[in-house]
Amino acid sequence: MNLFLSQITAIVWKDVVTELKTRELFSAMFIFALLVILIFIFSVNLSIVKASEVGPGILWVAFLFSGTLGLNRSFVMEKENGCLMGLMLVPADRTAIYFGKLISNFVFLTIMELFILPLFMIFFNIDLLEHLAPLLLVIFLGTLGFCALGTLLSSLASNLKTREIMLPILLYPILVPIIIGVVRMTGQILAGEPLSEMMNWIGLTASFDIIYIGVSIMTIDHILEE
Amino acid sequence: MSPDEVEDKEEESNIMVWLTGSALLAAMIGIFIYVPTERTEGVIQRIMYFHIPCAWLSFFAFFVVFICSILFLWKKDREWDIYAHASAEIGVVFCSLVLITGPIWARPIWGAWWVWDARLTSTLILWIIYVSYLMLRAQSDAGSMRARYAAVLGIVGFLDIPLIHFSVLWWRAFHPQPKVITSEGIGKGMDPSMLATLGLSLCAFTLLYFLLMGERVRQEQLKDEIDRLKREKLYSS
Amino acid sequence: MSDNPNPSDSAIEVRQLRKEFGVLKAVDGVSFDLKRGEFLSVFGPNGAGKTTLIKILAGLTRPSSGTARVAGYEVAEGRSEMRREIGVISHSSALYADLTPMENLIFFGKMYGLDHPKESALEVLEDVGLAARRHDRVRTFSRGMLQRLSIARAILHDPSILFLDEPFTGLDIHASNVLKEHLQTLHNNKRTILMTTHDVSCGLEMCDKVALQVMGKFAFFEDIKDVDKENFETMYFDAVRNNQFTMGIRPH
Fold first, then answer.
1. Whether C232 contacts C204, CB under 8 Å
2. Fewer C-beta neighbours within 10 Å, C or N terminus of chain B?
3. Which subunits count as partners of chain C given 3+ CB pairs below 8 Å?
């Protein structure tokens, strides 16, 4: 058990060190998310629609798109030089590899989101600070679900010829429930509703997270096999 | 396969063809001649006898994909991979038919080709999931990797169905509800002859599923057989 | 090299090993024994299933049937004790290009659960003569240096058995001589080695046992002293020539 945890930590540490050295991933994800938001601002007329109505959707589309960049990168890095084979040779449970990658994906994406939030606040002129705690909970649930399924499917897509194309095609339709859920919840939070009004959505996103972490634990063995 | 086996299979599939053919014919007679025209919707309502069986069939086919995927990951037997593949293809075909017959039915009734009704929306998402499943299969080379990946996606995709259903249902709750015959409405207040026709049509389509499955599975098995023979004969040592 | 449940002197015991999927038979009923400290060279045309054989023995993929015991452990069980006993070197280095050799080896050391990953990393880097460049990014390394580094990664946890999958691919003459020397040292240290290669002279020079794998089967398995080098070479080239016809029917 101890080795299991230290292996997970080692994988996260390795990803963080790589990122600190190259600074490729974070900057790309951040700028891309920013671009997505800008493009949406240009495509909707903010003088007609209320910012608090379109804002949540735009925010999550930005997170989703730039998160996909991160996922693509994460397993391509493992495939380069056949590193994944090296990882599979070590006396580690396959789930340790999954959780290591899941946590590092989650950490990168969350940091990027925390940087985007203030910009979103300024661009859309919405005060997030008064709803910060419930908003962070929703971001946590949404990002976790995205990373849980995304890590599984990107480990799968990384072995395909057309991995950059296939990852979003495989991932997005299955993510539909969680996308609807987080966008709705974010909208309701910004409208000032308490969390107790949206327990059904919280239940839905939480069960999504649990189901897909569970499925990943059960199936990752079959994906991480040469 | 020995010649005897081939003969047996052919005989089996012949019976299946006749059975399915006559069931479909009976269903056609039921739909176009026997069943009375619905009072408010008129003749267009007869499309229901295709729409609902197609929906049931695609759902059933995806369920078979799910079960075969689990069995494949468990047994690692190529047979289950073939079954999952064949069932996914058939499911996508019938899911497409649902998406085509839906708007045809909707246009005169709701006055719009497409309404973001919960069931139609869920069907659309389902269709995309299983099209991406078939794309995944097309993208990877034949072999155990393709089978394993497809199986994982077959499981992941099917488990998403209840989540999609509820999210789309609650999402719709915020929009004005279109006037729809809800699924709860079907069966209630329906003429017994309509129910009988629907039941007959469901049976005929289910038979059609098994017929198509049998053919598609046999095709894949023959492909495998050809590959095996090619490899054997070409290697001369 | 830790305690072993298997007191016999067999490092690798393979019985009727098969890896098949539908009509594809990558490994088709292979059986052989390899004693501790022996060096086996496996020759064979492309697609003969050599790499799959190594992947099964290294626990990267499961066999369809048959048994294989590596260092006394059944491979199908995927035990971590077995993984500690084996090291794999293939033509890809399995090292992170943006990290330094030290960072890479410390990472793998932690994954193996070594007590002193840093010290072990330094030690193996000295063994392969790359200690001076331990703080440069792996991306800047030449093919030959990468292959040495990959040896360092493979012996980091001091395994008793090494699998080498086409280790000479892409190396220039100097680099392959250096690699040969390293392999010789590893062999002299009583490590069991199983190597697949296309290079007949190289492969025959170092090994104790020779095998030829064709269409997933071992067509030939002999002690090196019973092998007539020229005969073997002819046989090998025939196998490669015949194999060309079957290539490309279906990719493995």
1. yes
2. C
3. A, B
